[in-house]
């Protein structure tokens, strides 16, 4: 990918995570507790099937969901949200609602934008699983020493993998005006490290796509492969996602901050993997402790709007039920509510100007969640 296109991609990431211009101050929870990366022994799953080769469908009422409320959600999308492309609801492992809009269909590939970051997080979990990383608390000064030979701010060497994952690296960065000035012959990783620090590492949340890209650069160095290379065999293949397009930056590293494309049903498989704690049909694809740390309030940076941010996953601020979600510009969502055994996929138009954006996550929080009977056991063994 040439420099002009890469810069254009970054500039397009306007508040790329949730479609909101809020940048709330955090109350970060700093922890050095180790995350176990031991792969759990295969266990007999309680699921009656796994959607590796395709999803099964069922009626919503058979899985404790009120179809009338789903119809209300459908009506609101149709009448008020012309830029929503798809809505897919999975309960107990069955698709109980699936609808496509604006000319999209089940075969359409949707641009995930910043929801790509949650896939990058999964790849860091796999690097931990396979021993390429020892801990999320390893420092960049130790892992990427070649980028610290000319820096005059020695605090940067103390930035950890955890800080990159939870957006507390401290780099001075304005996501709403995302622009990284590249110099011919200078690696992108060096350019990012050379950015000034606005805060000491670990002290303040600031959403930053360039910090996410450092994870991809680090991943390539540690494994000798790109995130795309490893995802094809170690993430997509085990859960039945056909290998898809994952663009690279100028230096050949997968774009950890944006770029993945896939159909809604395949995106739902990724959500289902996290709904099941990183396990898929008896295989622990991502370490369970890493999945928990990535998506739990105990580990998350707390935001003043009531929400939280884990390891490249957002935590739901509504708190009706503990939930977490991947999010991308234009209304891309993978929303996971483990207490309800529920996941929701929504996709939207990623080409909108900021002035054209419409909030859409309320379809999930105001219509889908209230439709679910929490104690429904139908469909589970």
Compile the SSE list and pairings:
Blueprint: H1 3-11, E1 26-27, E2 56-57, H2 67-80, E3 84-91, E4 94-100, E5 110-111, H3 116-129, H4 140-143, H5 161-165, H6 188-193, H7 209-223, H8 227-239, E6 261-262, H9 264-275, E7 279-280, E8 283-284, H10 288-295, E9 301-303, E10 308-309, E11 314-315, E12 324-328, E13 332-337, E14 342-348, H11 362-368
Parallel strand pairs: 2-4
Antiparallel strand pairs: 1-9, 3-4, 3-14, 5-6, 7-8, 9-10, 10-11, 11-12, 12-13, 13-14
Low-confidence stretches are 1-33, 36-44, 376-381
Shape: globular
Q: In total, how many domains does the architecture comprise?
A: 1
Strand content: 5-15%
The CATH homology group name: DD-peptidase/beta-lactamase superfamily
Structural write-up:
By secondary structure, this protein is α+β, with helices and mostly antiparallel strands. It has one domain (3-371): DD-peptidase/beta-lactamase superfamily (Beta-lactamase, 3-Layer(aba) Sandwich), CATH 3.40.710.10. Helix content is 28%, strand content 14%. The chain has a ten-stranded mixed sheet with strand order 1-9-10-11-12-13-14-3-4-2, with helices on both faces. Helix 2 packs antiparallel against helix 11 (362-368), helix 3 (116-129) packs parallel to helix 7 and helix 3 (116-129) packs across helix 8 (227-239). The protein is globular. The termini are far apart. The model is unreliable at 1-33, 36-44 and 376-381 (pLDDT under 50).
